[in-house]
Design brief:
Blueprint lengths: L2 H12 L16 E2 L1 E7 L2 E7 L2 E5 L4 E6 L4 H9 L1 E6 L9 H4 L14 E3 L5 E3 L4 E11 L5 E12 L8 E2 L8
Antiparallel strand pairs: 1-11, 2-3, 2-6, 4-5, 5-10, 6-9, 7-8, 9-10
Length: about 170
Amino acid sequence: MSAKAAAEESKSENSQLCPEIPGLALGKVTSGLFIVTAFEDDKVDGYLGSWIQQISFEPLMLQIAIKPGRPCYDYIIKNKQFCINIVGQQNNGVMKPFWKGYDANENPFEKLAHTRSSRGNWILTDCMAALECEMQSHYHPGDHVLLFATVLAEYVLKPEDKPLAHVRKNGLSY
C-alpha cells in the first residue's frame, strides 16, 4: 500500500470531520485563566481572561485580547498599565466574582485578598503569580482588541501551585 493510500485509510478510520459544527475544533485550543486588573484613581476593574500569550523574549512582551466597552479596557487605554493575575489550582475561589461578571455597583475587590504594587496595580494574592504590564500598542482585528504590552515586573506568589488550563466547548463563545 502506498503512503498516500495508507494516510487516506487512516484518516477515514481514525478521525471524524465535522464541518457542520463550526468552532468545535477551535474550542480545543487550550489557554490559561487570568484575572486582568486595571485602575483609574481610586476605581478598579477586572475581568476573567483567557486570551493571553507571550509574544517576545526581548523585550519581554505579551498580548491580551479584550472586548471594548469594559471599564477595564478604558482604564488600560487611558493609563497604559494593567496587571495579569495568573490563576492557579489553589485559588480560594478568586475567579467566582469574575466568572459571569458583576454588577457595576458592586466592588468584588473588597472581598478579595490583594495588595497594591508600587505602580498602583492590583495584585490578587490568591492567584499563583502576577505580571505588571505597560501597553505599547493595540490593534483592532475583529470584535476584540489586541493589546501588546511589555512586562515590567513579575511576582511569584505560590511557587508550588500549578496554573489552571481552560478548554472551551467551542471556539464561538467564551
